[in-house]
């Protein structure tokens, strides 16, 4: 059973599903903004084409479609059932919309910051993070400092990222690295 899940998508699987999604540049009856009709390339070729020619929204939708195809294939392998191509499209569209709505943050509200560093409660650690993004550099970087309740540094991290991201997104990556570092060190931490 696992061998069938690990095999590569066949050209026919991808082509049949993509051809079922009618071509439109602007959303029409099928709501598909991607040019998918007539793609006779492998999944990798299609991905590279879309990566080099598409907008961020096109990429989100493309990968949602790829996931929906994969999900449908797993249904066939495990349950001997499948979705119709239109159902695969609607599933991909819903997944993409859910992703966009869950990734929408209110970054406009100002953050209140204490005038001085406040230690965490006894037995906990405090994770402080920062980011650096410059329009002049081709990458962003994150910094993490973890302190105990006495203010002593327990761990620190400085890491360049592979590309440049917005300041807001780089801050999210800094938070992620801070939490992962604390988990790796098995430190007790909490939101203070």
Give a brief outline of the structure:
The chain is built from 6 helices and 3 strands; from the N terminus they run H-H-H-H-H-E-E-E-H.
Task: Give an overview in words.
By secondary structure, this protein is an alpha+beta fold. It folds into 2 domains: 2-102, no CATH class; 126-184, Ribonuclease H-like superfamily/Ribonuclease H (Nucleotidyltransferase, domain 5, 2-Layer Sandwich). The protein contains 6 helices and 3 strands; from the N terminus they run αααααβββα. It has helices at residues 2-6, 11-20, 43-53, 56-79, 85-102, 167-184, and strands at 126-133, 140-147, 153-160. It has a 3-stranded antiparallel β-sheet with strand order 1-2-3, covered by helices on one side. Helix 4 packs across helix 5 (85-102). It is elongated and about 60 Å long. It starts with a helix and ends in an 8-residue tail after the last helix.
Q: Layout of helices and strands, plus pairs?
A:
Elements: H1 2-6, H2 11-20, H3 43-53, H4 56-79, H5 85-102, E1 126-133, E2 140-147, E3 153-160, H6 167-184
Antiparallel strand pairs: 1-2, 2-3
Helix pairs in contact: 4-5
Notable characteristics:
192 residues, alpha+beta, Nucleotidyltransferase, domain 5, 2 domains
Give the terminus-to-terminus CA distance.
47 Å
**Strand percentage:** 5-15%
- Principal-axes geometry comes out as elongated
Low-confidence stretches: 22-29
In oligomeric terms, what are we looking at?
single chain
- SS element count, helices: 6
- What does the radius of gyration come to? 22 Å
Q: What is the mean predicted local confidence, pLDDT?
A: 75
- Biggest sheet strand line-up: 1-2-3
Number of domains: 2
Biggest β-sheet description: 3 strands, antiparallel
| DSSP E strands, number | 3
**Broad structural category:** alpha+beta
The helicity comes to 40-55%
Order of helices and strands: HHHHHEEEH
């Amino acid at each position: 059973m696992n061998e069938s899940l690990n095999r590569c998508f066949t050209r026919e699987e991808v082509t049949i599903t993509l051809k079922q999604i009618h071509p439109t540049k602007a959303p029409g009856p099928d709501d598909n903004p991607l040019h998918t009709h007539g793609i006779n390339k492998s999944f990798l070729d299609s991905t590279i084409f879309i990566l080099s020619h598409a907008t961020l929204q096109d990429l989100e939708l493309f990968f949602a479609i790829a996931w929906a195809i994969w999900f449908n294939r797993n249904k066939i392998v495990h349950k001997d059932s499948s979705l119709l191509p239109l159902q695969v499209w609607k599933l991909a569209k819903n997944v993409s919309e859910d992703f966009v709505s869950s990734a929408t943050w209110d970054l406009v509200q100002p953050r209140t910051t204490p005038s001085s560093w406040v230690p965490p409660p006894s037995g906990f650690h405090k994770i402080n993070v920062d980011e650096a993004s410059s329009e002049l550099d081709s990458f962003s970087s994150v910094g993490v400092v973890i302190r105990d309740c006495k203010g002593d540094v327990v761990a620190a991290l400085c890491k360049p990222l592979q590309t440049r991201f917005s300041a807001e997104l780089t801050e999210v990556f800094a938070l992620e690295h801070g939490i992962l570092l604390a988990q790796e060190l098995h430190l007790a931490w909490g939101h203070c």
